[in-house]
Amino acid sequence: MQGTAALVLLAALAGAARAQDQLTTPSLEWRTVQTEHFVIHYPARAAAWTLDVASRIDAAYDAVSALVGYAPPRRVTLMVADPNNLPNGFALPFLDGPVVFFWPTPPDPYGGLGGSASWGTLLSVHEYAHIAHLTRPSRSPTERFLLAWSAELGPVAIGSPRWAIEGYATYVEGRITGAGRPHSAARAAVLREWALSGALPPYDELDGSGRYLGGSMAYLVGSAFLEWLVARPGQSDSSLPHVWRRMSARTRRSFDQAFAGVFGAPPSELYGRFTAEITARAFEIERAIATDSSALGAGTPRVVQRFLWTTGSPALSPDDSLLAVLRASPTVPPVVHVWRTHRPPDTSAAARLARARKRDPLDVPGIAWRPAPLPEAAARYPEGGAPFDAPRWTRDGASLLLTRETGPGDGVIRRDLFAWTPATGAVRRITHAGGIRHADPMPDGKSAIADQCVDGICSLVRVDLASGAVAPFVTGAPRVVYERPRVSPDGRTVAASRQSKDGWQVVLIDVATGRVRVAGPDDGAARYDAAWRADGRHLVLVSEAGGIPNVEEVDVSTGAARALTRVAGAVRAPEPETRGDGVYFLRLHARGLDLDRVAADSVPVLPPVPAVASSPTLAPVAFEPPVPRDTFATIALSPHAYGLGPRAWRVLGAGVYAAEGASVGLMAGTMDPVGKLTAMAQGYLATRGSWQGASLGAGWRGWPVVLRAEAFYSEDDPSKQWGFAAPTALDATLGGAVLSASLTREHVTNRQAIAFGASLASIRGDTGASGTRALGFARYDGSFTQSIRVATLREDITISGAAGTTYGERWARGLAALTLWGGYGDIGIEARGSYGRVDDARASFEQFSLGGTAPPFFERELYAQRIAIPAVPAGVSVGQQLETFSVALPFQWLRPYFWAGSTSPHFDFWEQVVGLEASVSSDGIWYARLPGFRVLGGVGYALAGAWKYQARVYLETTFHP
Fold first, then answer.
1. 3-state DSSP assignment of residue 932
2. How much is the pTM?
3. Is 299-342+372-601+608-618 in CATH node 3.90.870.10?
4. Under 8 Å between Cβ of 553 and 545
5. pLDDT digits over 811-867, tens only?
6. Under CATH, to which class is 648-960 assigned?
């Protein structure tokens, strides 16, 4: 029996990238391809991207295994899916079957990931590096046995800090590919800016913090620290595998002990030396690139707005009077603001200063160290909690094109195009499940050119702004990515960023002919984020010439380029004025991205970026250009239909401990990594008064409608439970079967599900009654989310009904519940109320019963009359009508709550409980070999009722197919 808690925690964390945990969509057409070292499962619609990756992945495997010094003995399962339209991947380093997950949507140029010639190759190296690194088993027989059967993880995976895990995979990424983050101007810029600001994370924040880019420091700073370590005298690439070998030795060692035995000091001590050295290197680069401010004159960039945290690409209105910018922070949801670019004169400043001097003549007025806020003209807040992004003005200046997360209804997320009119506040959806990331309108106002990313392929498309129809414009490929198109003032040419084997380039596409050519010098420097100046003859863009991202102007006819900025960190997203010579852009600093402006026509000829900015001796704060590497040999592939997929077995312990008693169980289940078919057998033994019995069930998800079937036998005797004797009419032995079908439509701002089922069972009560129980049931669940500025309101509605016969007596039952959640960010309050009624139920068994737990091993709808409150015994109140009310504070992990419930006939007495609980649940994380599960734990204290003034701890771990 394997460790339930460790597996559930690991798989839940792996699947928590979004609210959804089912990253695969089983109802799609799936395919499988197998190589020597991998078995790869992918949707048929992602075949082009997947097969390109698969053809090279064995060569990546060999290169990584040689560097890391280990390879797992079993094939690695690779899952490819595009659930969120985001670039990502993760690894589950299970010793008995490692799994990696690839999200094929390629990254943008900013974070360093986009610098590779192939997103798929970078994923292959980075994620497999996790597997080779973390699946190294212990060489201690005792520890190997305990780890294999408790956590299924090795000592390196369990004992390594996050910075060492992510930093090492990033280090390998750079060593093997010669690209990625270690060879990006982005990583160098972050390290340089943070060092110059004295903001490099202390060692205890290297795993992550709440500061800007704090979660990325494990990758960026962690990899740089490891590079620095192996470059020290007496060290080499093999030094790091020596650490992993020491951690997995027969002699048990912590990470710090293993590290010190290789590098001669604990990691925290050497990290202090590392930060001191790279800070000195950063100041050397800053001194070298410093320019005499008097030489720049009017061309010196000025700060328009100082910001903390994230700032989106700015968009100027056609008359330059309005500026649209996305703003976000850790505490405020992202909002698209429209600001006026000209501040009204502050006519009262002199009077305020005079009054202040009169009140306190010795006071010293402060300097104006930050600009006053720009006046706000409008704001577009999130819709249903989903923020808008990527604003672009229409040519008439009346509306903005925006993108927002949506979805086709099967749970996956795509971005779509919307039009917002700030003057009226009206928002109109244009596309549906289009995968649109950015769009720029054509001069005629009837269409726009957009970049569309679906299943790993990013192309340029033309969008009809009236109908939402999408037509191809320029088609991308697995290794050719198009991004961020901008239409020229005359509408004849489109400029876009393109990533290919030559890196990021700005290309020009003739609208009439489709001809594509590169804009700018042929100097090998990465260029992206292009925007047209008003003359239609020049582009402003980001250029990494010299190793530092700066704003550059390019003549589209000659290709000549001149720098407009010379920063020590990095810039992004230049936006030129239409009527003036100003260029707005974002500038990176250690607290976020500021909005700056430079007068382009006033900038003198700037000297080239000094060579020290890309000097190897000043790495990692200096840019290390990508190094040409072997692109990995390709192999022939033979894809085939997925079918029911490979079967994996899982045996897990289960159980319930609550006020009514305790039960322990065992679940043996089989599932495939996509989740098309799951089946399980469960058996429970229990104390008197708790659930015991067995079930055999299966779930089929190969169609949009999910089918489930279960055969079960259960014994439940609440009259014999701990400390409280419920009415004997609730006791029952039940044996039979249940069939159900459900359909779920899940979008970003709403989710709706319907389910139908029927059951036939034999029933025997302790009163001696016996017979049959036949019923049909139906259930509707709806969840709807709205936004009120930065606050969020959600309504969850559940309506269920059942009808049938028990002991030959007819009955019908209905139950409705409404939950209201209102809050700000992740902080809110939840209120829930429910009402239920049973008609013609002469058998008390079918009446509502408060307390106890729901059936742990078969369909809970069969006991919908049992209102589960595990802190109090089952059957503390029984009646034909039901009312409940609860209030909770649902924090991320803990949920303080107050609950009250009563049954008819007069609702004159209410059971009341206060408590604190935590839970995690899923309908299945099949690629991690986990079926549907629920883990619930908490403590409750009864304020009134039969269990008054008593507290009970409860814990529940259950599974379902």
1. strand
2. 0.93
3. no
4. no
5. 999 999 999 999 876 678 999 999 999 987 666 789 999 999 999 999 999 999 999
6. mainly beta
